[in-house]
Amino acid sequence: MNKLILGRYFPGDSLIHRLDPRAKLISGIAFIFISFLAKNSQGLFLLWLFTFFVMSTTRVGFRAFFRGVRPLIWLILFTVFLQILFTAGGTIYFNWGPIKISEYGLANALFIFSRFVTIIVVTTAVTLTTKPMELTDGLTFLMRPLRILRVPVDELSMMLSIALRFIPNLLDEMQRIMDAQKARGAVFGEGSLFHQMKALVPIFLPLFSSSLNRGEELANVMDVRGYRSELPRSSFRRLIWKIKDTVCMLVILLLIAAFAVLNLI
Amino acid sequence: MKDLMIDVENVTFRYDRREQTDALSSVSFKAEKGKWLSVIGNNGAGKSTLAALLIGLIQPSQGTIRINGVALDEESKWTIRRSAGIVFQNPDNQFIGATVQDDVAFGLENLNVPADQMRLRVTEALETVGMLNYRTADPTQLSGGQKQRVAIAGVLALRPDLLILDEAFVMLDPRSRRELLATLKRLKTERDLTILSITHDMNEAAASDRILVLKQGHVARSDTPAHIFSEETELAAPFSERLRRLLLKKGRRAPESYRTESEMVQWLCD
Amino acid sequence: MAMRLRLDHVTADYQIGPVRSPRVLREVSMSLQPGTFTAVVGPTGAGKSSLLKVLNGLLLPQSGQAEIGDITIDGKSSKRLLKAVRKRVGLVFQFPESQLFAETVEQDISFGPLNFGAHPRNVHALAEKVIAQVGLDESILYRSPFSLSGGQKRRVAIAGVLALEPEVLALDEPTAGLDPTGKEELLSLLKQWNKQNGLTILMVTHDMESVARYADDVVVMEKGRAVFHDSMRKLFEDTERLEKWQLDVPDARRFQLEFEVRSGTRLPRVCLTEDELADALIEVGRV
């Protein structure tokens, strides 16, 4: 639970923290596409340079980013090895049946590895520096065009923000119930798998029942406070686009331009 | 006579038709504008059912409820809730916004109030309950008492005529409870706010204008604290009354009827 | 058998993921005599609940140690040792009804004893015993805990801890949310177990009326420290320090103070209940 760094907010006051969530979301998505534009060594260098620039600007510390990459490391390494072993072309350094380690294979592996890691780092930078509710606001705004397709954007965003709001409460509640059952002699994380699963019943049943209660109470509260999904609502929080957000977009455009130039020459 | 804020006539409610007993049966009472009405009674007496009925969460099987002259039904409840609010027992389950100010604004957002006006009203409401310094705090940073203050601010932002408290102070420590009560008393006089408070706290009930005693779904009594505590002797009583009853039991000199704490001290001094 | 509880310079905090909470207990030292009824009071966040958790082995001291009879726990105690402690000190959490999970009340009550290795054949008798102890009818054993009223659930949850047959019962605000009748009944039960069965009781509460009427001793917690541990009466006699710790006084005492100011007459002693106050008023000839 505590290892997952993606989707966690890291309080701070850096330039990136202060950017508009919309600017950050657009940049993050744009970066995923940009990473596919890196096709030569200069491009690769630029990709890493930009990534390090983002990492240091967040002032979160590199360790947080390493922890972001760690859960996915096996997936990354697996893909990298497939590339190394099964891509042919260029000079062949090693050959054993269908397995060849070739110049192209190594190069491809390096590109894939770089894409993977830089994408994770940059998207982590977005979530680390943006409060969950700001992320929701940004997403809601960006999803607005979907309203034309009758996607219930506002309901979705309300659901998302309430879910985010109650995660800490649920974790607290779980800790409390675990403690209470421990006090009654329950032991967790010991014995056979079957035993461990069985030990979870005294936690999850009460947690489930209290969540249902909580949900019902919450629905009542929303109802009496006049929430009606079918009526238009105004919004207390307003996103304000500032000059630095425009600058951020320009940087991204510049990055795209740089790649275009690198790929043409 | 002043205008009526709450007019309940012959209200009966049963949660489940298969059940033998009504949660509330033939309940009638009235509350005048600007008064503080306490509702007391043991758990299971139907107090929370009454609160849910008054705010339109459930509909009576029989009888009518009028809030500020408007008969409450599935349609009118939305209008009524523009000027009536309720605060429930559990502070954690009422906090909808991600921060204090977001939560206070929730009701206003639902009314589609323009953003600049909303800021004004949120600030005003938070100032009233003394939580303005916490406006950007998230709920995990607040104590139970502070969360209930925010919940009250959420109602006050609507500039309501009626505030219902459904055991809203049960989970608070005595000090935050007293402070909140003092705040509400001030609001009641300043804004002509009507308060209906469901409570177990006899000292709180004693300080209200009227008391409604519920017993197994019936109105056992509706009267002023003085009459209720003097005459309903099997009821738990505030301290001054406990002392008065004890003195009588010991065959000593005592006031002939209920006195507030301050009056009782005065009586002893004379 | 008399078991003593002793805390020796216990300092503790919670580790939640990478974040370390500020110290919740600082250098707490105290000794709890067997058979006493002790109330733990203090403002929210003063470390009252954490104190109970240390005695139950749920929160390990970072430095210092806790002695539960002949068992000593410190930061490195094994799970087995902690389990032994939990058998001796029963801990009832705040709103304990939220921990009920089994299909029947009997199964829920049996959960603890079975965890501690009780023989399945013996737990039925045990369940019958504790359900009677909490003042509920035996027939409730076969019902689902989710079908009970709030007050009944609370008692069933407490019965589930009593079933461990602990020597010390530690309770975190056991009367929170109960109506006046339910509250009075539960407190009388606690007092009864304390007096008749010699159960040591440690109860966290905000309610000074309960402290005045039921507790022998009081521990005052403030910012993670135990700043007072003495008899209940000593605490309420010390008006100055009560003020400093922002603690309330019982109704009778508040009434007495107001009376003394307004009448200019001092009552012969500190009164904590209406009985004491009435007697004192009679003594000075006011009534």
From TrEMBL, chain A:
Q: Which organism is it from?
A: Sporolactobacillus nakayamae
Q: Tell me, what's a Pfam family for it?
A: CbiQ
This chain belongs to the protein called Energy-coupling factor transport system permease protein
Query: Where this protein primarily resides, as one coarse class?
Result: membrane
Cellular component aspect of the GO annotation: plasma membrane
**Compartments, as annotated in UniProt:** Membrane
Query: What membrane topology does the UniProt entry give?
Result: Multi-pass membrane protein
Which segments cross the bilayer? 72-94, 106-128, 246-264
Q: Keyword set for this entry?
A: Membrane, Transmembrane, Transmembrane helix
Automatic annotation (TrEMBL), chain B:
* Predominant localisation class: membrane
List the PROSITE patterns: ABC_TRANSPORTER_1, ABC_TRANSPORTER_2
Its cellular-component GO annotations read:
ATP-binding cassette (ABC) transporter complex
Domain of life, per lineage: Bacteria
**Which Pfam families does its entry note?**
ABC_tran
GO molecular function terms attached to this record? ATP binding; ATP hydrolysis activity; ATPase-coupled transmembrane transporter activity; cobalt ion transmembrane transporter activity
Membrane topology term reads: Peripheral membrane protein
What residue stretches are annotated with the ABC transporter domain?
6-241
Is Ribosomal protein included in the keywords of this UniProt record?
Answer: no
Spell out the subcellular localization from the entry. Answer: Cell membrane
Q: Which UniProt keywords apply?
A: ATP-binding, Cell membrane, Membrane, Nucleotide-binding, Translocase, Transport
Looking up PANTHER family in the UniProt record yields: ENERGY-COUPLING FACTOR TRANSPORTER ATP-BINDING PROTEIN ECFA1 (PTHR43553:SF24), HEAVY METAL TRANSPORTER (PTHR43553)
The family note in this entry says: Belongs to the ABC transporter superfamily.
Protein name from the UniProt record: Energy-coupling factor transport system ATP-binding protein
Automatic annotation (TrEMBL), chain C:
Q: Where is the ABC transporter domain?
A: 5-248
* Membrane topology listed for this record: Peripheral membrane protein
The record's annotation in SMART domains points to: AAA (SM00382)
- Compartmental location: Cell membrane
Instruction: Recall the GO molecular function terms of this protein's record.
Output: ATP binding; ATP hydrolysis activity; ATPase-coupled transmembrane transporter activity; cobalt ion transmembrane transporter activity
Known EC number(s)?
A: 7.-.-.-
> What is the enzyme's class at the highest EC level?
translocase
Among Gene3D superfamilies, the record links this protein to:
P-loop containing nucleotide triphosphate hydrolases
One Pfam family from the record: ABC_tran
Cite a GO CC annotation: ATP-binding cassette (ABC) transporter complex
Question: Which UniProt key words apply to this protein?
Answer: ATP-binding, Cell membrane, Membrane, Nucleotide-binding, Translocase, Transport
Major subcellular site: membrane
Q: Does the keyword field hold Cell membrane?
A: yes
Assembly and interactions? Forms a stable energy-coupling factor (ECF) transporter complex composed of 2 membrane-embedded substrate-binding proteins (S component), 2 ATP-binding proteins (A component) and 2 transmembrane proteins (T component).
Function of the protein: ATP-binding (A) component of a common energy-coupling factor (ECF) ABC-transporter complex.
Q: Which family does it belong to?
A: Belongs to the ABC transporter superfamily. Energy-coupling factor EcfA family.
Protein known as = Energy-coupling factor transporter ATP-binding protein EcfA2
